[in-house]
Automatic annotation (TrEMBL):
GO terms for biological process: negative regulation of transcription by RNA polymerase III. This is Repressor of RNA polymerase III transcription. One of its GO terms (cellular component) is nucleus. It comes from the Eukaryota. It comes from Chlorella variabilis (Green alga). Pfam families: Maf1. PANTHER family: REPRESSOR OF RNA POLYMERASE III TRANSCRIPTION MAF1, REPRESSOR OF RNA POLYMERASE III TRANSCRIPTION MAF1 HOMOLOG. Gene3D superfamilies: Repressor of RNA polymerase III transcription Maf1. GO terms for molecular function: RNA polymerase III core binding.
Length: 175
């Protein structure tokens, strides 16, 4: 799926996609970012409102802070030329559920699906069926929380010249 999504010419535009799975375990620089966020919360530099309400959950809870750190670290790993370590909870949104996100992604990939169907070696199973079954096999979709990244389109890879649209969804299974 990744080799296909790397660069799909759909006529008027090129779709570039990436699908990655990570196991979350803090090590090295990852621990440093986690400690930095912990210190920020402990020092009370965040407002009480942001501590009690955030897209990842109450930031006074360790599990919520850990989720935020994992989201930031994932972006740092996928895009090593950019530094996302200054992102905070308000840069993310917790989505309503997997089904709504599936619809959104399916709509974005409808043209790529047509190319998949006509590409030798790929078209045995529809792209979207293959995509969702692969994701489900890796992380058990029904057990996931879904987050999206709200890009500022200026200081990250999604604001590159010529980019028409982009999306980043994180399917997070705590197990």
């Amino acid at each position: 799926i990744n080799s296909f999504l790397d660069s799909v010419d759909v006529g008027d535009l090129i779709v570039k996609g990436d699908l990655e799975a990570y196991s979350c375990k803090l090590a090295g620089l990852d621990k440093k970012l986690s400690r930095s966020l912990e210190e920020e919360v402990a020092a009370g530099s965040a407002s009480p409102t942001s501590l009690s309400k955030s897209p990842v959950g109450p930031l006074h809870e360790s599990g919520s802070r850990k989720t935020l750190v994992y989201l930031i670290l994932t972006l740092n790993h996928i895009y090593p030329d950019y530094d996302f370590s200054l992102l905070r909870a308000h840069h993310f949104k917790k989505e309503e559920g997997v089904a709504a996100i599936e619809e959104t992604i399916d709509a974005h990939l409808v043209e790529a699906s047509k190319v998949w169907d006509t590409t030798p070696g790929f078209g045995e199973e529809p792209l979207l069926d293959c995509l969702w079954s692969s994701i489900d096999e890796a992380i058990a979709l029904k057990e996931c929380d879904v987050y999206s990244y709200k890009s500022d389109m200026e200081s990250d890879p999604f604001g590159e010249k010529g980019s028409v649209w982009s999306f980043n969804y994180f399917f997070y299974n705590r197990q």
